[in-house]
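Help needed: design a sequence for this.
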């Protein structure tokens, strides 16, 4: 059982950023309004995610560390339809199996919380604790018992950068949730809850935010919402491309190609896209049956999706006639 967890950890837990991803997605699924992520030494010494979500009862907290104890569910096809980010119920047991792990949680309305401490996946202590409603998960000494994994970790700076990139993407996708990222005691960003425009301004900077056009069209069942920057502000920056399918961050060749096509005239002049795209397609039109840590999808009708995205962005970039 514990070995199975360690093997699963090899798939789900690649590096500190993958731990943060799983924990933050759980916090979002728990309906939180506020998430604080702290790391130390690139996440190798410490990763802590604090949320004000639903919390768990003692029973559910213990269950959450067992394999396949998901409270969400379902088949991969149901995933998008359900609208939760988690699936498989593997993350917590996997992370716990390769760290010194503490889960403190207090269910909404409960008079006290529960703290569970585990080492290498073995539960060492379960006790009552006083805390605010919500959940605090602390992962120390990641990979302490899997030296091969430890060797693949990059410098603290590189790992912290991956965590920052990941949190930027998650924060862009959920502007209604407050995000705070603290690295080695320094606040890297604090994004207050607000509109998508405000969130993008907080994360990508005011210059870009001041030159964004909103997108909001539905064509052939493909809904495209988001923001594109006027090409004159996106000069020389390598560009920013944030694409989400049904709420999930993806890095997809079809989508990327559509964006670059829409920007093709500007690319020649060294102007790069700054694009935040939320694409919504019916659940049956997209296949996410891929590895949980990859950002790939497959569209049933990729030509249609491509052309709709390109068209909507071209429309937004077209100079307004007067
Ligand atoms: P999954 O997300 O696939 O269900 P996880 O291993 O990530 O599996 O989490 C197991 C279960 O623990 C979740 O289904 C959820 O019920 C509970 N859980 C995990 N994190 C939190 C959290 N931050 N707040 C409330 N419940 C949580
Ligand atoms: Mg999960």
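Sure. Designed sequence:
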């Amino acid at each position: 059982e514990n070995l199975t967890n360690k093997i699963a950890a090899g798939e789900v837990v690649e590096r500190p950023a993958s731990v943060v991803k799983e924990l933050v997605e759980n916090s979002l699924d728990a309906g939180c309004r506020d998430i604080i992520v702290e790391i130390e030494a690139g996440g190798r010494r410490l990763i802590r995610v604090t949320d004000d979500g639903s919390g768990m009862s003692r029973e559910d907290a213990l269950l959450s560390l067992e394999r396949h104890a998901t409270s969400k569910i379902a088949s991969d096809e149901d995933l998008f339809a359900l609208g939760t980010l988690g699936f498989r119920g593997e993350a917590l047991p996997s992370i716990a199996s390769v760290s010194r792990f503490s889960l403190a949680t207090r269910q909404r309305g409960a008079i006290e919380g529960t703290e569970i401490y585990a080492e290498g996946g073995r539960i060492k202590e379960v006790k009552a604790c006083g805390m605010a409603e919500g959940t605090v998960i602390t992962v120390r000494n990641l990979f302490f018992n899997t030296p091969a994994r430890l060797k693949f970790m990059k410098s603290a700076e590189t790992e912290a950068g991956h965590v920052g990139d990941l949190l930027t993407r998650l924060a862009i996708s959920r502007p209604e949730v407050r995000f705070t990222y603290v690295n080695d005691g320094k606040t890297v960003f604090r994004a207050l809850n607000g509109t998508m425009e405000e969130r993008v301004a907080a994360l990508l900077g005011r210059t870009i935010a001041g030159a964004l056009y909103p997108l909001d069209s539905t064509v052939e069942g493909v809904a495209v919402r988001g923001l594109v920057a006027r090409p004159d502000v996106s000069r020389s920056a390598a560009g920013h491309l944030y694409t989400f399918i049904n709420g999930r961050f993806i890095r997809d060749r079809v989508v990327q190609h559509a964006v670059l096509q829409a920007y093709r005239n500007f690319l020649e002049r060294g102007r790069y896209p700054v694009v935040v795209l939320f694409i919504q397609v019916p659940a049956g039109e997209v296949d996410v049956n891929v590895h949980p840590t990859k950002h790939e999808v497959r569209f049933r009708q990729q030509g249609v999706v491509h052309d709709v995205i390109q068209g909507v962005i071209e429309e937004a970039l077209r100079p307004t006639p007067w």
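The pocket of magnesium ion (ligand 2) is lined by residues 22, 25-26, 86, 91 (CB under 6 Å).
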